[in-house]
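hey all, quick one before standup. I had two proteins in the batch that finished overnight and I want to keep them in one place so we stop losing track of which output belongs to which input. First protein below, input sequence then structure tokens straight from the run.
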Amino acid sequence: MATTIPGYDYDAAAPSPVSAEELQQLRENVLFGPDDEVALKQAGDVLSDQVEDVLDVWYDFVGSHRHLLHPFTGADGEPHDDYLARVRTRFGQWIRDTCERPYDARWLAYQEEIALRHTPARKNRTDAVESTSYVPLRHVITLIYPITATIRPFLEKSGLPAETVEAMHEAWRKSVILQVALWSRPYAAQLW
């Protein structure tokens, strides 16, 4: 699953400080099991041709809320359009990775990289922009809802039975919660 997306080097991410055992505990906490892995792969098939449409919905949502757009603005308060575009490309790959990649050590390492890019440790470095120094954790956490709720209509477009759509949607929700839990680690490393 190699990609040529600028700023996206999945295989170069440093190992995560989160252990395999801790990841397993988080998986158990959200009831994420083998059936969810299957459902996510199926969701990946369904979403593969709709990624840009999903991103349109998400970017419209973020763009309509000044406080969510703020981490993408410069000192003048105006959004960096090129920064938003580069992040959008990586966000699209994140959708694919959520559904298609095994949740192994490499995946865990890249989750840490994503997390750090939201904090003062690495925010703005990948794209060499001057913007806010972090994305507030409260926004990362509360975006769980729109990122999970808005995916359902795209899954429903598959025409698959309602119970299959529900399984894909629940697997997506569990995965997003799991990832946000991992992304919270750098914000509160001593308490994590």
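OK second protein, same deal, sequence then tokens:
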Amino acid sequence: MHALVAEVRRGDFLESVHHGTVLATGPGGRTVLAVGEPDRPMFPRSANKPLQALGMLRAGLALNGELLALACASHSGEPFHLDGVRRILKGAGLGTDALRCTPGLPIGEAALRAHLAAGGTAAPLTMNCSGKHAAMLATCVVNGWDTAAYLDPRHPLQRALRETVEDLAGEKVAATGVDGCGAPLFALGYRGLARAFARLATSPPGSLERRVARAMGGHPEYVGGTGRDVTRLLRALPGAVAKDGAEGVYAMALPDGSAVALKIADGSARARPVVLVAALRRLGVPVDDGGILAELATAPVLGHGEPVGEVRAARILRG
């Protein structure tokens, strides 16, 4: 059973609750916190992207810096994100018509408003996974693989990415599904996901794993976008690797090898950063210093546009 991990209080009144699973491990994989169903596999959703990006580098993709961070991203659809996707595709001799991701609108509020005001509609380019898809296509071009069928689980690209995910996680993929963007989606256990992120965060200089970690940490605005919690977390914790995922998923690892993998059972995103920060506190990360982590430790509940309560971690996480 999932555990109660977050409370939603409107004033002093307990209005709603969120259940979920949280696993926090220390250096070396020692269990520090385990609540809910940490031994049950789940779909990490977009938290798989840094692992898939490593698989693309292993297959010969030559991206670095902000474009590699974009390959790991669920981007907000801001102009610099879309420009980066075009740059990845142009480097591979392709245009945006090669993208096979599901058409989507920008997920950043400001980007969405601007896009709609300009008469924009849902398109593969503005879908938040277009950076990953552009990198997948570029990897196919490098290897001479078919670019039209790159989303097929039997495609050489997807077989290579699955092998990398399994290698990093130290376990076999428990199930394969179809992600919201149309790409194959690999299920992992919480411990495997935490282990995979820890391997990225503790990788040696010069390794492909370190290239992924440095790209995400050095260009956090490309991993998420303006105001996004994943971008703020990466800025607040130098050397960390963090990625949010749909359906209430978060994964994060620190340079010492500590890691967190979590899922909010009802798929809600509002409790996700709150629960993550509570787990980081249990790992000994300073949270109550008035900085970004302190801001993310709760989320406001609004009444008439003003804060009247908060989403906060449940007692089981507060220790």
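Flagging for whoever picks this up: The CA atoms of residues 232 and 268 lie 19 Å apart. The mean pLDDT is 98.
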